[in-house]
Amino acid sequence: MALANKATTEVPQRQGTRPTRQRSLPIISLVLGVLAFASIMIAIPMAFLYAQTDVVQGPAQRIFYFHVPVAAIGMFAFVVMAVASIMYLWKRDERWDWAARASAEIGTVFITLTLITGSIWGRTTWGTWWSWDPKLTASLVLWFMYVGYLMVRSYMGRTSASANAGAVIAIIGVFDVPIIYEAVNLWRGLHPAAQVGVAGALPSDVVLTLLVAFAGFALLYGFLMIQLYQLQKVQTLAQRLRATVEYDIYV
Amino acid sequence: MIYVPDDNVCHDDALQGAATHTVDPYVQIVGLKKSYGLKPILRGLDLSLQQGERVALLGANGTGKTTLLRVLAGLTRPSAGTVAVQGFDLVQDAQAVRRLVGFVAHQPYLYEELTALENLLFFGRMYSVAHAHEKALELLGRVELAKRTRERVSTFSRGQIQRLAWARALLHTPHLLLLDEPETGLDQEGHTVIDTLLREHTERGGTTLFTTHQLERALSVGTRVVLLNKGRIGYQQQTTALTLTELRGVYGQAVKP
Amino acid sequence: MKRVFFEQMWAILAKDVRYELRSKQTWTSMGMFALLVLVIFNFAFDLHTENTNAVAPGALWVAFIFASLLGLGRTIAAEREQGSMDRLLLCPVDRKAIYLAKLLGNVLFISVVEIVALPVYAALFGVPLLAGGLIPIVLLGTLGIAIIGTLFATMAAATRARELLLPILVFPLIVPVVIAAVRATEALLVPTANEPPWIGLIIAFDIIFLCVSTLTFQYVIEE
To answer: How would you classify the pairing of strands B54-58 and B207-211?
Structure first.
């Protein structure tokens, strides 16, 4: 973190602004990390002990407290990625690209967890490891988009063409996911599938546990974002430095 | 000298306005940087071209000569810095700049399965050239390809392809001509042809920037010599004030490993 | 200004059509491929008259999608192989015009293949070809695939794994078109009540992504 903060980017700072954002990132990251850890540590016993057992599904329903926040944040990460990509195309500032890549990597992991927990939950509730339920299907497609994004970024290296390509994928994707959800909804709406929604108002202990879990994973996302952003920054600057040195030696 | 195009190709009002008064300098490059990926090629280039100049760009391989031409031709964006051609900014008014520029590069930028005439007519439509058919036929005659007008480019020899590339570049009467090692691939006949074309271009008030490895040509064709070293200008001098021996000396120093 | 835009677009389209007519490479392979997929479906699902209607819509669209992706990859790769999207980038042409020209060209090529494949499909699967409404579904669905495919084929052409990367990027994104087109085709063969507005979905998809792709194309080809 210290190294990332010391390194300067090619982007010129505007006159008169202090790079406070750079200096305070480690502190923010530390705070977020501690809070995330604490929240998740609280959420785990809450999920297993405090929240009531679901009448219909039994103890297996507790996976809901991890599945829902992870899924929501996985999708949120995609939106962040798309917004950062639009900002990159607009401002041509590579820092937005770093943020997009960071969010993509986190999102991929979160969606993978969504699929796994969703599959496990489905197995215990419906007896199948997979169902073409709209939410799960949309998550699967989202997973493919994330992986596609990472693959393209990896193949194309650290060029502006790579950043542009990634940005376009993110923008197209963010418009597509709602349409995909709707299409699958219309499709599966024809086939009566076991709905796993919790009918009626949720009891307060469930809501509280869910909120704590949500907070924990949201904080975790923030923490990881800062860490991965700094990692992108250091990687880019290191490679750029190496390229400059090679150029000086060999040309 | 005011550059007066001999056909009215302008559909852009701004362009018409600018064409009637000189811009000094014609090409202004300030702090140009270009990196491919993370590899820096151009590292802070400052160069001005006056209207009517023929500037010879020299330098070892990899110092950024071709990259500079590609940036001016609008094929690739600068990483930093500003470039202005006839007052138009390269990034903001990219299309206006492209209309002013003709580029003869290593690649001919032609379509192999189309005939010579079809190629020129296509580019004529892309550049909105008026009376494109007549102009194309006239140019094909000038580059000694009149007999091969209706034959596919895939059947052409290297020299013929190069000459057709010149025709393509000149079709829209560019104000700025960019040439990347123009003498390569040409036979003796071709040399005479392009020398004439180049002379006429300058007489019309056009500016030229060309790269070459042949120092003699740099001095005979160019009005100024610019040496690139590690992505920046290392040396420049008017050719009238330079002898071949002096140039050899400077060049040898620069390209020394 | 607008007139120049369309003039350039038609010029690029005409050039591409002429080029393809002369090299003849892509069309013929696409056509053969589509027919082969249809035949293989016949063997794979051991069709009898009872189960034809269940498999037929899917078979048709699988054939079209795979053939389209093959074709898309080839046309863009051909342009890139000679190092020369540069030929177009050199010209003062709006990048949006380039995209629209490429899109129309691709739709045209794929349509020609479909025109050949449809009668064969009708014969193999015993489907009434001119069941009113099949043509619009095919056209709109093809447009949707081509809109996304043209954009990503250009992107993938810059990488070395382009033949693999293109399907990976395109398939997830065209899921709505696939679902809607297959269901709409199914509805033609076996009309049911309360069918969701599949064609409306495809139209919405086409409009939205035509706009988004046209605007983002310039970022994919410029260096």
So the answer is: parallel
Is C151 in contact with A168 (Cβ distance < 8 A)?
yes
Distance from CA of B154 to the nearest CA of C (A): 12
Q: Do the chains contact at B40 and A157, CB–CB below 8 Å?
A: no
Tokens of B252: 């040898």
Residue A51: the pLDDT is 74
| Contact between C94 and B99 using a beta-carbon 8 Å cutoff | no
- A147 phi and psi, to 5 degrees? -65, -40
Q: Indicate if the pLDDT at residue A131 is higher than 50.
A: yes
What is the C-alpha to C-alpha distance for residues B59 and A115, in angstroms, rounded to an integer?
Answer: 57
List subunits contacting chain C, requiring 3 or more Cβ pairs under 8 Å: A, B
Quick check: B119 and B174 in contact, CB under 8 A?
A: no
Instruction: Tell me the three-class secondary structure of C53-81, residue by residue.
Output: HHHHHHHHHHHHHHHHHHHHHHHHHHHHH
**Amino acid type, B71:** V
CA distance A56 to A231: 45
Per-residue pLDDT band for C203 (boundaries 50, 70, 90) equals very high
> Please, are residues B205 and B3 in contact by the beta-carbon 8 Å criterion?
yes
Q: Which of A10, A236, A243 sits opposite B39 (nearest CB)?
A: A243
Q: List CB contacts (< 8 A) between C151 and chain A.
A: 168, 172
What's the ipTM? 0.86
User: pLDDT class for C119, splitting at 50, 70, 90?
Assistant: confident
Contacts of A61 (CB under 8 A, 6+ apart): A53, A54, A121, A125
* Residue C35 C-alpha, separation from nearest chain B C-alpha, in angstroms: 28
Task: Give yes or no for a contact between B115 and B151, defined as CB atoms under 8 angstroms apart.
Answer: yes
User: Are β-strands B224-229 and B232-238 bridged in parallel, bridged antiparallel, or unpaired?
Assistant: antiparallel
State the best of B103, B109, B176 to mutate against chain C, taking most chain C CBs within 10 Å. B109
Residue by residue, DSSP assigns A149-175 as: HHHHHHHH-SSHHHHHHHHHHHHHHHH
Tens of pLDDT, residue by residue over B130-160, are 999 999 999 999 998 999 899 999 899 988 9
Give the gap in angstroms from C-alpha A161 to the nearest C-alpha of chain C.
6
Within an 8 Å CB–CB cutoff, is residue C26 touching chain A? no
3-class DSSP assignment, residue A90 = helix
If you write DSSP's letter for every residue of B121-185 in order, what string do you get? HHHHHHTT-TTHHHHHHHHHHHTT-GGGTTSBGGG--HHHHHHHHHHHHHTT--SEEEEESTTTT
Q: Do C176 and A169 touch (CB under 8 A)?
A: no
All residues of chain C having their beta carbon less than 8 Å from the beta carbon of residue B74 are 89-90
A251 CB neighbours in chain B (<8 A) are 60, 62-63, 230
Query: Which of chain A's residues have a Cβ under 8 Å away from the Cβ of B38?
Result: 158-159, 236, 239-240, 242-243
CB contact under 8 A, A251 and B230: yes
pLDDT in tens, C80-110: 655 568 888 999 999 999 999 999 988 988 8
Q: What are phi and psi of B135, to 5 degrees?
A: -60, -40
Segment B25-80, tens digit of pLDDT: 899 999 999 988 778 889 889 999 999 999 999 988 878 899 999 999 999 989 88
Q: Which fold has domain B52-74+94-252?
A: Rossmann fold (3.40.50)
Q: How many CB atoms lie within 10 A of CB B253?
A: 12
Phi, psi of B112 (to 5 degrees): -60, -40
Residues C12-23 as b/e (b if ≥16 CB within 10 A, e otherwise) read bbebbebbbeee
Letter string b/e over residues A215-235, b meaning 16 or more CB atoms within 10 A of that residue's CB:
bbbbbbbbbbbbbbbbbbbbe
Please give the structure tokens belonging to residue A249: 């030696």
8 Å CB contact of C7 and B125: yes
